[in-house]
Amino acid sequence: MTAQRHCLALDLKDDPALIAEYEALHRQIWPQISQHLLDNGVLDMQIWRLGTRLFMVMDTACGFDPEAFARAAASDPHVQAWEALMWRFQQPTPWTARHQKWTPMAQIFSLHAPHTGATGEARDL
Known about the structure:
Blueprint: E1 4-12, H1 16-27, H2 31-39, E2 42-50, E3 53-60, H3 66-74, H4 77-86, E4 90-91, E5 103-104
Antiparallel strand pairs: 1-3, 1-4, 1-5, 2-3
């Protein structure tokens, strides 16, 4: 089994000062946060921004369990403090379920995967 890739979306509040502060915090995240990620199976994480929309790419180790990851985060006071701070800047997307933050995105294309139609069946281009 290989590493897994998770792609998630979240929005920022539409306030240039808050966005600048959010980006500054992410240029030097707390060391406890990066250690928590590494200790819990995250191999790499990138966050991209377009306007107020955030896009996270998270590569995780083989066997990564999102529920175990969430439990570990919930029991870590540093992670909880970071998440509370981040919520000052963040807001759910219009498609986000109630009480959820980062929302998983559906992959619709991969250059290296078979091309599929709407039914998911392989087709020629």
